[in-house]
Amino acid sequence: MGRMGIQSASARTGDIHAGGIRTVGIVDNDPFTLSALRDVIGSMLGYRTLWAERSAVTALGLCAEDADAPDVLLTDVMMPDMSGITLCRLIRARTASVPVLAITSYNLDVHARRAAEAGAQGIVNKDDPAVIAAAVAAVASGTVWPYRPSRDGGDHAAVTFSTAAVAHRQVSASRAQRAIAALSRRELDVVRLTCETLAPFSDIAVRLGCGESTVKTLAQRAYRKLGVTNRRELMALWTEGLLS
């Protein structure tokens, strides 16, 4: 992409959501690419750049805040502090409200499958502003940007991107399943009884034949492994069918 005038990578615009204008968050460690992408977003789409960052870790934190979460996240795949694939997976495991479009200067076939599995809604090449604009618009509308492999047949032809909502369920379920596999038998018993009976820990302790303090310890260990902090969050996973 052309090297346009450099703007501050962490600059933010004010009152972005006013008037219903779509917003985009951009993360790329190259300041020239950031500047060029801001221009594409503004001049070709009329969207507003909510923020442009050179750190994937910073972008992750911004996407976790309602006030800073963009309508679409445009992320480079290869970055020094965290890959765009990991960034996408962490965002998608947490929420469906931030669609993600991956960008790369490499052949798309290299990263397409990993991006799809991480919960992205598409992947495009950095060198085609028109395609970037069209893909951002598609993802912002709640759909996906279809992947077109450069190689015929094989695994590349089978890569399919999902909407943010579908990808969120898939990534969350996968993470929960891995966490469940890491639970000990006793931890799993506590989780199951907590969710199925809604009983207090004292009653669960009686059923398991152990002390209440032991049940509390087992519950805290299970919470950490499942990525929750309390019963309410545990029940949310159970209700969504992610622990079954």
From TrEMBL:
CDD domains: LuxR_C_like, REC. InterPro entries: CheY-like_superfamily, Sig_transdc_resp-reg_C-effctor, Sig_transdc_resp-reg_receiver, Tscrpt_reg_LuxR_C, WalR-like, WH-like_DNA-bd_sf. Residues 176-242 form the HTH luxR-type domain. Keywords: DNA-binding, Phosphoprotein, Transcription, Transcription regulation. GO terms for biological process: phosphorelay signal transduction system; regulation of DNA-templated transcription. Pfam families: GerE, Response_reg. This is DNA-binding response regulator. It comes from the Bacteria. It comes from Bifidobacterium moraviense. GO terms for molecular function: DNA binding. Residues 23-141 form the Response regulatory domain. The modification 4-aspartylphosphate is found at D76.
